[in-house]
Amino acid sequence: MTWNRPKLHRRSILKGLAGTALALPILEAMGKEVVESTPKRFCAMYTANGMSLPKPEHGIDEWSWFPTKEVDGKFELGKSTEPLKPFADQVSFFGGLHHENGTKADPHVCSDMWLTGAPLHNPKPGAFNSVGLDQVIAQNTKQHCRQPSLVLSIDAGVGFLSRTGTISYDTQGRPVPAESHPRRVFDRLFRVDRTSLEDQRQRLKSRIKLVDAVLDSANSFNQQLGRSDRDRMDQYLASLNEIESRLIASEKWIDKPIKEQDYSKLNLDATPEAEPAEYYRNMLDLIALAFDADITRSVAFMLNREDGMGISDTFPLKLGLSRTHHNLSHAGDKDGQLQFAKYDRFLSEQLAYFMDRLTGYQDRDGSVLDNTIILYGSGASTTHWPKNLPTMVAGGRNLGLKHGSYWRHGENRMSNLYLSILHSMRIEQASFSDSTGTLAPDVFTKT
Amino acid sequence: MLSPRFFASGYLASGYLASGPTPRIRSQRKALGDTILACLSFWSLSLGLALAQVTVGEDTPVALASAFEQRIGPWISKNCSGCHNEENRESGVRVDQLDASLPEESLRLWESIRDQVHAGKMPPEEEPQPTAQERLEFVQWLDKSLHLAKTRPTPRNGSMRRLTVQQYDRSLKSLLGIERNLTTTLPPDAVSRDGFTNQASTLAMNPLQLEAYFKIAEEALESAWVDPKLLPKIHFFRMDLGKSIHPSPSSESLVLGANNHLLANADFLVTEPDLAKPFPFEPFRMQRKFHFIEGYQGNDTVRAWRDFDGIEHAVFACMRGNEGYPKGKAYEVFPNGLALRPAIPSPEIFGESSTYGPQANFKVSLRELPEKGKFQVRITASKIDDLLLIDPSIPIWKPEESPTSSLIEKEWPDPSAPRTVSIPQDGIYQIQITTQQPSESPNKDHELKLSLSKPSSQTEPVPRNIQTTALLKQPAFGLVRLQKGDWQLGLSYAGPVPIERVEFHLLNPNTDSIAKQWAALYERFETRNPKLGVHIGLRRDCGSTLSQVGLPQIVASKTPNVYVFEGDIANFPTPDVEANNVNYLAGIREIGIRHEYTDGRETPRMLVHRVEFEGPYYDTWPPESYRQIFSEPADPTDPTDPTDPTDPTDRKYARGIVERFAAKAFRRPISSIEQRELGTILESELRAGRSMAKSIQETLLVVLTSPQFLYITERSQDPQAEPLDEWELASKLSYFLWNAPPDPELLGLAGQTQLRAGLDHQIDRLLTDPRCESFAESFVSEWLSLDKFDVVEIDAKRYPHLTRDARKHLRREPIEFFKHMIKTNAPAIDLIQSDYLVANEVVANYYGLGDQTESGFAFAPLVHGRTRLGGVLTQAAPLAGLSDGREANPVKRGAWFARRIIAEPPEDPPPNVPKLEDLTELTLRQKLQRHRDVRGCAQCHSGIDPWGLPFEQYDASGRERTDRVDSATRLADGSAFEDFHAFRTYLAQDRIDQVAFSFAKHLAIYACGRGLTYNETLWLRENLGQHKKSGYRAVDILRWIIHSDLFDKK
Questions:
Q1: Is residue B105 situated within a structural domain?
Q2: Average pLDDT of the segment spanning B525-546
Q3: How many helices (H) and strands (E) does chain A have?
Q4: Dihedral, B1005, B1008, B1014, B1016 alpha carbons, nearest 10
C-alpha cells in the first residue's frame, strides 16, 4: 500500500498456501454473512455475599432463594424470586454447583473468581486470576460487533484483589475495569465522538501499514530461502495475512452508522447514591439497547460488592431494611434472614425488568431474550459458604435452552456449567478453567 | 526419484530387520543375556535366515508394489476392509485407502497392523481366518516394505525453527538490553512427541500469536526507548528501623486491614533524602495527601470521606503474617534495627492457618512504586550476636559439677536494674533461670527479656551486646558463648512470681553425652548465617503475592553491611487499581524483607537496620538500553543527534542504526536486499512526516516481527545434506547450550570462518557460562517430564512435608544434578545410581539428610550413604510428579521410565481402552493385574507396568516408604527382581548401554530441535558404543553430538 513495488493480492497469497489452515470465520466477517446471522449474546449478572437460605427452624422456607417446592419437575418460585413469575418458563435454577478452587481459598475472593474459577489460594506470581467466561465469549464474538465486551459494576474501576470491583478478567487474568455511571456507559456505547474515531482509524491504518511492511520483507526473505523447507514460512505468512484481514475488518466498523433507537426513556444522571432501583434500571436499559443495536455480545455486570465494600452495601438501608448488605448476609436470626431475602427479592425485580426489556426487542427469529443467555448468581451460597452457589440461567431459547426446572445432581463444577453455556453459544472449546465436561443436557439441549 | 538400485543396495548394506526393538523380539533379547548392540546382529542373522525360507519375490519397490497389486491389496480387502473402511471405522482404524507407497504418516498404522496380523489377533476369532501361509506372506511383504520405507533417505532441506518463548524472551532482552519480562502473554510452546518444546515441527505460528509478537515488540521498544533530552525522574526513599528512632512520631493509630501488626510509629522513620547520581535528574516525591471514603478502619464498612496528610499514610512497616512463632519472638525491635527470625512458611492448608503469609513476615507496605524500569532495593543488615534458646522438647542437660558462675538472688527488687556477672573462663554457657515456687496455676508461661553486654577491651576489640525476649518455659533458658570477665546482665520478667536464681553453667563437652551434643549444637548454631531475601508484591487480604527479587544473600557479618537487590519492577506483581481509587487499602504494594528459612535449623537472627528503594535505577543517562540501539551516546546538545529528517547526514546515521540493529537481531550480516528493504521502510516513514526517532522505531518494529528474527533458519540449496554455514552454526550452538542468541565472540569467529575450527573450545566456554543454566533447566525439565511435578496437586494433609517451598527446591534437584554431571563430565551410570546427591539444605532435609550439610540454599554434592538414594530415579520431583498427589502410580512411572530412561516407548493407548471397573477393594497391584488380563491391554502393559512396580518403594511425595512395601517385579523377558535395589543394580550393570542411548537420543533431539529419522536413530545406536569404554560420559556425548552430522548438517 505504501511502498512502490508490485504487491501480491491478499487473496492470491491465501490461495497459494495450499494445506495451511486458515480461520475462515474471520474472512467471513468481511462478507455479508455476518449481517444475516442472528447474534448470540451473553450477560452475566453477579450479586455478592450470597442469597438468603433461611434456617429450617425459622419456618420461613418460602423465603429461600432456591425453590423449595416442585410440581411435575417444574419449580415453584419462592417469595424472593416471585417477581420472575412472568418468566418462569424462561429460567432454570442450578443447585450443587461450586468452584473447586473456591473451596480452598479465602471466601472473600469468591467474587474475583466467580467467572474464572482460578486457583486464587495459590496464585502464580504475575498471573493471579485467569480468563473469565464473559471474556472468552468476547474473544469469540468480537469480530461480529463493535465492542468485544461491556463490563459494568456498581463501582467504577477494578477494586483490588480479594475485594474486586469487577467480575471480568481478560485473557491474561487481569481485571477489566468496569464502568458504573450511566452517562459514561452511554457515551462509550452510543456517542463515539469523531476525534476518537479518527484516532482509532489512524491507529488501525498505521498498524495495517506496519503489517504490510513486515509482509513485504517476509515475502522477499521467502524468495531468498532457496530450496529450504517452506512449511514454517507458509504458516507465518498465513498468520500475517490473517492479521491484516482482521485489521481491515475492524476498520470497516468505524464508518458503519449505529442503529437508530429510542433513548428518550433513559435517565443518564441516575446514581446509586440516590435511588438503587432507578440506577439499576437505567444500567439494564443500556445493556438492552446495546444488545439490540448489536454493539456488543458479551456483558458482565457486578450488581454489588463483597464484604461491605462500596455503595451497594448501603442499599438495603435505603430500601428500608435494618442492616447493610454484608451484615444481612451474616444474619442467622429469623428477622435478619427474612430481611436478607427481601433484598434478594429486590434484585429479582431488577432481573425481571431486564428480561422484560429484552423481550421487547426483536431479532429476526425471535426476541433478543431468545438469543441471549443470562447467567445470574453469586460466588457464595450464604455467608461465605463456597458451595451450592445460587445460580440461575435465563433466556437463550433459540440457543437450545429449555427452562422451568431446578437442576441439581449432587455436587458439580461451575466450570462445567460455563462450558455448557459456551457450547450453547457454539463456542466449541474442549474445556473451560477446571471443567471436566458439560452438564444439564436437559437444559442445554444443543450442546 | 531415487533408483530402485539405491534402495536395494541400501537394504543389503544396513542388514535386514535391524529395525530396532519391537515388542515381539524383545523377549528374545534377554534370553541371550547380552546387550542390545550385540543382539542387533543376532536378529539380523536369525530372522534373515528364517525369512529366506519363504520368498515374496524381489524386494525392490517395484516388485513390492506389484505384489501389493496382485495379492496383498486384495488380501486386505478380503480380510480387513469389511470393518475398517470409510463408513465403518472399527477402533478408529481405516485400511481401505492404504497402498504400497507407505508414506511417512502411515508407518505407525502399518506397524500396528503388522503386529495384529502377526499375533493372530486380527481378523478377530469370530471372523473367517486366513491361513498361516497367507499371514506369513502378508507379514513378510510388510516387513520388507516397512524396512524400505524407514531406510529411504529423508531429503534435508534446511529448516526454519521458531524461537521458543524462552529463546525469544532472551533474544529480545539481549538485543535491547532490557530485563522486563514481556513474553508472559505468549501461549506456552507445544510439547513434541519426544517431550520437548524446542522442536521445529511443534513450534507453530498462528494469527493470535503473531499479533502478540507485534504487541510485545512495541512494548519492548517502548521499554528501551527514552528521550535523552528529558531528565529522568527517580523515586528514592529510606526506612530506618530501631526502638524510638522517629524523633516526632505520629500519634495517629494506623490501620491497614485486619490483623495488620504494624510496627509502632516511633520505631521506624521514612525519609526521602537527596540522592547522588553522576547525571542530573528530577527527584520523585511520594504523595502525602489522600482522600478516602472507605478502608481506613480496616475492612469495616465506612462510607465517609476523610482527608489524610502525612508520610505515615503512604509507607508502613508491616509484620502481618501467621502467628505463633514456635520459639522466641518472631521479631523484636532493637535500638538499632529490627531483629528477624527465619520466616517460617505458612502451611497453606486452608482452615488450619491464616492466609497471611509466613511467620516473621516483614514488609514495607507503600502506595507508590514506579511503574516500570530497573530498581534497586538496598538493605543494611547484620548478623545478630545471638543466644540459642533451649527447646523444651529435647533432653535437657542438667549441670552437676561444672565450674559455675551463679548469680543467685532471693529477691529481685528492681528487675530493670542491670547487675554484673563474673564469668570465670571462656566457653559456652547454659543460662538457667529459676523462679520462686509459684503458689498456684504453674502452667502458664511468661515473657522474659534478657540482655547481656560487655564493653570492648584491649583483648576484646568488639563489644558484645546480646538481647532476647522469649517465654520462660523451663529453667534451662538459653546457650551462649561468653568470654571471661565481667558482664552486665539485664532481666525483666512478666511472670506473677519473682525470679529466684540466675545461673551460668559452663558447658563442658567432656562431662556427658548430652553436654557434648549441646555444645555441638551451639557450635553449629553460631557459625550459621542468616540468608537475606527481598520480595516484591502487593497487599491483599489473603494469600501471598510476594515474589522473590534475585537470590537470597548471606549476612555473615555482625557489623552492618549493605546488600543490593536488583530487578525490573514490571516483572513483579502490580495491583490492578486505578489511580483515583477511594479505598485506603487498595493498591498497596509490598517490599518483603525476610530472614529466609531453609529447614528450621537454629540460626542466629538477622538485624535489619535500613531499607532503601531506588527506581528507575540508572547507572548512566541515557541508559544502556538506549545506547544499545543508538550505538553511540546521543548527546542532547550535539547537533548531529539524528533528529532532523531532512538532514542527509542524519538520514545516513539513522540507516546505520537500523542496519546494525537488524544484523544483531538476525544474528548474521544482513543481505543487500534486506539492507535495501529496511532503507525503504525508513524512508517511507520519514516521507509520511514522522520524526526521525519515530521512523527508526517503526522500522525496528518490522525487524522485531520479521521471520529472520523470530526463526532460527538453516538455508538449504538442495536435498543433499550440506554443512551449516558458520553463522548458522553459531546460532544453533548458542540456542542449544544457552537458549540465547550467540554472543559477540561466537559471531566474531563465524565472521572469520573460524568457529568450526575452534568448536571444542567454544563448547567448553558455553558450558561454563552462566547462560548454560537455561539449557540444564529446559533439557532436564523436558526430558524428565518435570512439568508433571509442577501441576500435581499434593494432598497436603497426607504429605505435609511437601510444602510449596520444598517443591520449589526439589524441582531444582534434577537440574542441579545434571549441571553437576556436566561440570564433572560424569558417566551415565550416575543417572541410575550415584553415591552422591546434589542438594541444598531444603532438599537434604527432605530426604532426612539435613544434618549432613550446611550449604544453605546452594546446591552442592553430598555423599548420602543410603542404598535407595542417588541418581535421577530416586529424586522426589519426577516420582511425585508421576503420582496423583495421593498415591504413587506405577503405570505412570513405568511409562515414564520406558520412554525417558531406556527409550523403549510403549505404544500409545488404543482408542478403545475399556474403562476400569470400580475395584476399590483391590490393591493397586491387583488392579493392574486385572487390567493386564483384559484382552487388548495386556500387550502394552506388559511393556509398562513391570518397569513401574519397583518404584513402589517411593510414596506419592517421592520419599522412600518406611512401611513394608512390595517393590518386586518381573520384566517381560522373564527376569525378576525382589525389590527396587535389585532392579536398579541390574539397570546399572546390564542395561547401562540402553540408558546411555536414551540419554544421547534425547540430548540429540533437543540439540537439533527436531525428531531423529529412523536412520539417524540407528546411526546413534550403532556408534554410541565408542563411548562405552569411558563410561558414556555426559560431556563426551554432548560434544560428539555437536560434531555429528545430526547437528552440523542441514
A1: yes
A2: 90
A3: 13, 15
A4: -110
Segments of chain A with pLDDT less than 70? 1-36, 123-127
Q: Report the relative pairing of strands A150-153 and A298-302 from DSSP bridges.
A: parallel
Q: Which of B681, B720, B725, B805 to mutate to test the interface with A (most CBs of A within 10 A)?
A: B681
| Amino acid code (one letter) for B984 | R
Residue B573 with chain A: CB contacts under 8 Å: 125-126, 128
- The reply to whether B198 and B297 lie within a common domain is no
> Do residues B452 and B482 make contact, with C-beta atoms less than 8 angstroms apart?
yes
Query: Residue B279 has what pLDDT?
Result: 94
- Quick one: which of B729, B735, B724, B666 has its CA closest to B198? B735
Residue B52 predicted with pLDDT over 50 = no
ipTM: 0.80
Q: How many structural domains are present in chain B?
A: 4
- Domain assignment present for residue B870? The answer is no
In total, the C-beta contacts within 8 angstroms joining chain A to chain B are 188
Is the CB of B547 less than 8 angstroms away from the CB of A175? no
All three cell numbers of B1031? 563410561
Closest CA in chain A for residue B155:
A229
Return left, alpha or beta for A37; rule: phi > 0 is left, psi -120 to 50 is alpha, else beta: beta
Contact B950, B977 (CB under 8 A): yes
Q: What distance in Å separates residue A446's CA from the closest CA in chain B?
A: 25
Range list of H helices, B611-691: 624-630, 648-666, 672-687
SS3 state of residue B920: coil
Whether B422 and B440 map to the same domain: the answer is: yes
User: How many Cβ atoms sit within 10 Å of the Cβ of residue B103?
Assistant: 10
pTM above 0.90, yes or no: no
Cell of B513: 553425652
Omega of the bond prior to B616 within 30 degrees of 0, cis?
yes
**Is residue B21 domain-resident?**
yes
Q: What pLDDT band is residue B701 in, cutting at 50, 70 and 90? A: very high
The nearest CA of chain B is from the CA of A394 a distance in Å of 32
B15/B76 same-domain check: yes
Report all structural domains of chain A as residue ranges with CATH numbers, in order of start. Answer: 1-36+194-265 (no CATH), 38-181+271-424 (3.40.720.10)
Contact A214 B161 (CB under 8 A): no
For an interface test with B, give the residue of A13, A167, A211, A239 to mutate (most B CBs within 10 A): A239
3-state secondary structure of B48: helix
Q: Per-residue pLDDT tens for B122-148? A: 888 888 889 889 899 999 999 988 888
* Helix B132-151, helix B107-118: angle, nearest 10: 150
Strands A298-302 and A41-46: parallel
What's residue B793's pLDDT?
A: 84
With respect to residue B425, please indicate whether it lies within any of the assigned structural domains: yes
Percent of chain B with pLDDT over 90: 54
Cα–Cα dist B1034/B763, whole Å: 13
Answer whether A385 touches B (CB < 8 Å): no
**What residues in B contact A386, CB-CB < 8 Å?**
none
Q: What is the pLDDT of residues B143-193, one digit of tens each?
A: 988 888 877 777 788 899 999 999 999 999 999 999 999 998 787 888 888
**B217 plus B342 within the same structural domain:** no
| pLDDT tens column, B224-256 | 888 888 899 999 999 999 999 999 999 999 999
Residue B214, domain extent = 159-228+624-716
Return the pLDDT at B415: 62
**Chain B neighbors of A243, CB-CB under 8 A:** 207, 210-211, 214
Give the pLDDT band of residue B4 (cuts 50, 70, 90).
Answer: very low
Q: Of A138, A141, A146, A189, which Cα lies nearest the Cα of A37?
A: A141
CA A373 – CA A299 distance, rounded (Å): 10
Least CB-CB distance to A125: which of B545, B673, B684? B545
